[in-house]
Design a protein that fits this description.
Elements (H helix, E strand, L loop, with lengths): L36 H5 L8 H11 L1
């Protein structure tokens, strides 16, 4: 049943708080499969929001 489902997430190496400053480092490898398309299209990641986390979570599911 859905109430018994349990989801565990690990590897928060790229995690950041929404609206936190982001250091642009082009040498860093990123998990492209899990990135929202809006982040990949834009060099400005200051518009990061919870919606991107939801997208990443959906990809994992």
């Amino acid at each position: 049943t859905p109430s018994k489902n349990l989801v565990k997430l690990t590897n928060f190496s790229m995690a950041c708080k929404a609206n936190s400053s982001y250091a642009d480092n082009t040498q860093t490898a990123i998990p492209v499969r899990y990135y929202a398309p809006e982040i990949l299209k834009s060099r400005d990641q200051s518009n990061y929001s919870e919606a991107f986390d939801v997208y990443s979570f959906d990809v994992l599911m």
